[in-house]
Amino acid sequence: MIRKICIVITARASYCRIKAALNEIRKHPALELQLVVAASALLEKYGCILDSLEKDGFCITAKIFNMLDADNNTAAAKTTGLGTIELASLFENIKPDVVISIGDRFETLSTAIAASCMNITLVHVQGGEVTGNIDQKVRHAVTELADVHFVATAKAQNRLVQIGKNPEYVFNTGCPSIDLALQAKNITQYCESETCENKKPDAGEKYLVVMQHSVTTELQYTRKQIRETLNAVKILNIPTYWFYPNADPGSPEITKGIREFEEKCHDHLIRFVKNFEPLQFLQLIRNSSCLIGNSSTGIREASYLGIPVVNIGTRQAGRERGSNVTDTDYDCEKIVQSVNNQLLHRRYSSETIYGNGHAGKKIAELLATIPLIADRKTDY
Amino acid sequence: MIRKICIVITARASYCRIKAALNEIRKHPALELQLVVAASALLEKYGCILDSLEKDGFCITAKIFNMLDADNNTAAAKTTGLGTIELASLFENIKPDVVISIGDRFETLSTAIAASCMNITLVHVQGGEVTGNIDQKVRHAVTELADVHFVATAKAQNRLVQIGKNPEYVFNTGCPSIDLALQAKNITQYCESETCENKKPDAGEKYLVVMQHSVTTELQYTRKQIRETLNAVKILNIPTYWFYPNADPGSPEITKGIREFEEKCHDHLIRFVKNFEPLQFLQLIRNSSCLIGNSSTGIREASYLGIPVVNIGTRQAGRERGSNVTDTDYDCEKIVQSVNNQLLHRRYSSETIYGNGHAGKKIAELLATIPLIADRKTDY
Amino acid sequence: MIRKICIVITARASYCRIKAALNEIRKHPALELQLVVAASALLEKYGCILDSLEKDGFCITAKIFNMLDADNNTAAAKTTGLGTIELASLFENIKPDVVISIGDRFETLSTAIAASCMNITLVHVQGGEVTGNIDQKVRHAVTELADVHFVATAKAQNRLVQIGKNPEYVFNTGCPSIDLALQAKNITQYCESETCENKKPDAGEKYLVVMQHSVTTELQYTRKQIRETLNAVKILNIPTYWFYPNADPGSPEITKGIREFEEKCHDHLIRFVKNFEPLQFLQLIRNSSCLIGNSSTGIREASYLGIPVVNIGTRQAGRERGSNVTDTDYDCEKIVQSVNNQLLHRRYSSETIYGNGHAGKKIAELLATIPLIADRKTDY
Amino acid sequence: MIRKICIVITARASYCRIKAALNEIRKHPALELQLVVAASALLEKYGCILDSLEKDGFCITAKIFNMLDADNNTAAAKTTGLGTIELASLFENIKPDVVISIGDRFETLSTAIAASCMNITLVHVQGGEVTGNIDQKVRHAVTELADVHFVATAKAQNRLVQIGKNPEYVFNTGCPSIDLALQAKNITQYCESETCENKKPDAGEKYLVVMQHSVTTELQYTRKQIRETLNAVKILNIPTYWFYPNADPGSPEITKGIREFEEKCHDHLIRFVKNFEPLQFLQLIRNSSCLIGNSSTGIREASYLGIPVVNIGTRQAGRERGSNVTDTDYDCEKIVQSVNNQLLHRRYSSETIYGNGHAGKKIAELLATIPLIADRKTDY
Predict the structure, then answer these.
(1) Nearest CB partner across the interface for B86, out of D63, D65, D86
(2) Of A18, B273, D299, D353, which one is least surrounded by beta carbons within 10 A?
(3) Beta bridge mates, A63
(4) For chain B, how many structural domains are there in total?
């Protein structure tokens, strides 16, 4: 019998991370993919993924607009509540056999709660990692609600077993984002794409990439944090691709900081972008001289690609990392110095902490074979 | 500065369990109690607690009707989502310093998510225990979202530290339900009460108490499970106080089973009840000959009171228990036999696994002194 | 191009009323039926329609559980709000060309608001009538949100034109419930049905039918109102089919009144029922000696079938009626007398105030041809 | 007994319109004001009113964040649904005697539905007017749900009586916005204000004001509509205060049009603003040479102030207007010509179609004396 696998994508970043698995699930003869797009993944200002999905040939089962419009944590909580309501209704109607919750964004709690309350087998991808921010709490809470765990590292696997998860249901598949990174590495020619083409760096061009998100437990410092990095990059005076932040509380504050900067400085070399396709995005990272900010991309994909990273602040605190990462504070001077050091070092050798590029296949295969809740009643 | 302590009560059972702490919080000069009543705690059919609160002299900050009307897990998920939305709005307006989430009912996830998303210090009472059912997942997920833990047993404390919780924020306060049990034990005279009076057993009367809830992961067996126990109690032919079930999915199925039974059998000795006051409830338990079913009352309060318990099925699987508990299956014959054995054994000696009756005071004192999130920023 | 016609059914009564139109829409080559079942139409205690739909061969596009569980007007308001949210999401995903809102129950506001906010052509069936209760407000508000009106009487048509509705979009189709009544009249043999069979009256049996709902603007009198009628019917001492009430605020109060009655009186001739199939229901009415209560069935279908009706209270105040209706108060004595008078009068001659039995066809034909909002932009 | 009067403000424009009444309600000894701020009135990008409320000395009873973040009509419907849920909970807890719904924005439906479902006396301010857009439907639907009507013009009063509203409950109070306009007229000195000061025009400066909102039934033309007006104003080449649009679907599209314009044109004389205080706003209008766009301010306040207005498109179609208004299309050339004609004409004489400046007092007095639903039960 074909298993219906429902994946809820709530952000562009999650799409990039899971895409390799989606491809394999779609191709698998025993699986049917139910793709749900929700929250910021539907909003233009956060890099709506609908065009990318269409281009990549994915059909959408449902769209759920559940983001509240307000830059505060209250809105984040309500977005989560609304998502829970709507996903419960949707699951009732599309009857998935398995629901997949990705990573640690607060909206993924909606997916996890709806599925677990409804006794639908819940798979959590990327559990067991350690970081700062509300992400940490969310990730661990989703782990507790989940029935099966597809983790990205050996340490994460150990951690889940240590806290009492049944080892039979904890699988180290690696992170599917590394599958894409492998692809990006092997393509010598730059992928042309309608949406990204005009943002493409010239061949051989030297440039930086910045990805800096708000830290929801430090919202009062958001504006200061973004200013320090903006000033550092201005001083570095190297062409830079700067990604708009994810849809977290604090994100509009970052956008305001950027607008303010743009109004004051007209002679900078920064290009603010948001809509890169997953593969082009990784090619952009792969060909960059240094990645700056607090995104997990610096920790995961960049370690595989060997890209020098300057990681700022507490957002990734505790996450396993390769030798390519230098940590620093939200401090203009320190950032400049760290980047300069990384530029001198140049490329690092590839590390496979987060996988070797075959996560998608493993995930699809497991989804077709793991025992569902219905099949393992005695465990409960 | 006075700290505002917000407690959300979603079921009569939770009120019984936390009442001793509420009393101490109310009396504490450094604390202000914000009492929110929600979900089944507002519904007459599940034993609405508004009258009890008034009688006990508590003021209510807000009432939130968020129970969906449908006997399925989909409704349970939506109830949780709606609760999250409404509690977020409420917290935004009443600005608590601390939010307390009690136990492991699915609706407590709403409280936990709203508070944690909003960076409000979240205290979880009764974490770290092990059981079956969805309760297990909910309890552990709330633990992961919480900042401070007031556990009821030494083992629970160890377990939370083992899975990585900071020991400085894990306190073994004991369970405040034992405070009430202590009180019930010391009162020789039966408490008269307007609402319970007419249900009072006669002095010296020998009777059983039954509390059997649905198991949300075994919903398809609910009707069978209730039938077995009903038949067993009929065969035992002893006066019995039988409590209507909590507001879980499956609960209407139990109620239907009871109605069916009542239509068929007119010569039984069962009294179906729901609205006992917390203290009268514990007196009823204390004077009973045996407690039957799958309620945690059999595990917690009954072990302190030394009452023989026949615990049925998986719902309490794994929970620490005293020597007063005999486990059995949903099987009429086995239940009859187990009860008869317990009746022969009579009263057990008191055990203090779940506390010694001073939890309320400890909890209030801790609430006045624990560092709030705002004060321990560096942890994050 | 095939037009997608979405109908949201929120109560068993609405299903009976619209079924004839559903049949015609389904058969029409230019129309595709999108059937949504929501609110009380999904709940067993109010006569869940899922089995009936299956038996009648209808496919369901989506189920939406949106009833709040609380017997008060607050819950009714929240049910409406939740319905609006969920229907908006659903319409976004199933993209209907036309949405149909039926009658005047408060939940129909959800349908009307979602469709009108989203610029989807909204058809209101049964507007322009006058009654008491919140129904009156709801009906007129939906009329104001609707683009096209299928009314049941000539007076209703005039009224809508008088208050400014464009006559081109106000159609007197008659009420589709009369189509079923016509069918019920023409069938001499009683329809057997699995679900109703055992409730079937014997051939030639003389019996009454009672349908009494709560009046949401007179909730404080609900219990008294039901008591008066129960006593009257007890005094009449004739076999009686008594239908459980609709899912309005006050409905549980009525159910309680009935339970109380049943506990006290064991020698009555009343049969309490809820799950009649639409056609059997009308056959039951058609063969009854008198219909008692405050249901619009007494006003609409009964006038066509010529059945004597004793209409109680303000709920139908102002609604056009035939000579078969006698009005009275919630007063035991007056009800008994009115019923006795009606029993002496016996059958009335058929009146076609609410249509002549061909509404379904007219409605389907109009749905295929009326200009959609998109086609008549200039009106706005 | 003091009556609790609850007013829900969902947009800055509504605050400007109702402020004079708020002042009088607050001062009235028999009334207690319950002020609820919701939806776009809480969002910085739409001109958050919290600072203004504080400055004006109003206490807030509750804040409700219910705006969905998505630029489409689906989000508008969901915002309305969420508002209904949250307002119902709030009304349950703060127990207002009267709820006031202002005007015709879609979110006001939430207020109206919650209050009417809950049998709370609902007063509608500004009913009975005629316009284009979804506003028309919303206004009339709220009228149908309301119990008492405070209209702004004699024609509106007649219209409500004609469609069947009880004349005893339809009062022509005039529009409270005219009270403020009267005040603005009488103040010779320009009000200084912290928030507006730096935007203040110089004394004697000649300037235009533009207020152009999206038309929710013509969303596909929004970008074109804004472009035409931007080009017209650029050609006119006169200093201009241009207000950001209300929070309607289509509003982000307008904002984008403005950003696009700003990127291309650096030599224009437009100042884009959003946060004017109610009184300063009216002074700005009063001293302007011409008001351009599709705001009702051009129809209401401007007619009293005698300001020349160029009204564009269908948004105000059908609304009663003074001789100061010239209508035109979204056509750059026609707009330029209409504005030039109005500039030649200069100031018009004051008209009192929408009141004479004493609405606030009348409204407060009526609120203290009108019979509540509870007092006029017999009407139902």
Answers:
(1) D86
(2) B273
(3) A37
(4) 2
